[in-house]
């Protein structure tokens, strides 16, 4: 598959696109489109941070969370390391715990206040692997006889179908600084993206993104000028710099996601998401870090678009 802006329109903001694709068992086809919306996600190409000594000295099994499937595949493992404490790290640790004698959860974030399974231990981030094949943490703890390393260390943005004519400024495959509102390719905004932001409740965000894109493509609303889109994007980047946020988190929304959703609704002229979405998200988040093992067992019932009732509290789980 390949996606290219048409040559005759390279200097036009509203260029058309040539798309070559091939379905299973069919011949390659090429068509032209007025707009392209990229929805391929960003959970396909794993990010493997370097651990000094890993390649030279570690002889055990290692895999990225992307390839993790079944705890039974690792049954009988003596010592395992789950590297990273995002959603995947937490879930895989819990899923693996019955299959392994011991699991070490290693990460660079704040220490968890939650209870863990009895065979799971939280340590600081991995520093290196010594010549004996032992893992050493940043605090000097040594983990011996490791048979399994599961890296829960995020992903790269990857768009192999674009030609060099599309310069996304995808620095280290972790961030793209030329997307207006994390969506529109500023040079040619008939190319847009859904689902780029990180640390979000995905579907409410994508719902508003799709609405805004649809309104722009249909001509119902207008985007700002190219200069204004650049100014807005640079302003966002500088604001994040002033908050000492690392560049690799440029697309991270977290607490800003609901303000972002409302902003997109305002720009598109479409209804905002129901307030209950934010309320439920924030309520569940209160317990996520302190009750890793049970917070997903809470139960709720929707009363209306603003209110919900807790049927099963964290104390009942």
From TrEMBL:
Keywords from the named record: FAD, Flavoprotein, Monooxygenase, NADP, Oxidoreductase
Broad EC category: oxidoreductase
Gene3D superfamilies attached to this UniProt entry: FAD/NAD(P)-binding domain
GO molecular function, one term: flavin adenine dinucleotide binding
Transcription regulation found in the keyword field: no
Cofactor or coenzyme needed: FAD
Entries under Pfam families matching the protein: FMO-like
EC number, as in UniProt: 1.-.-.-
Key word Oxidoreductase present: yes
Family of the protein in this entry: Belongs to the FMO family.
Entry protein name: Flavin-containing monooxygenase
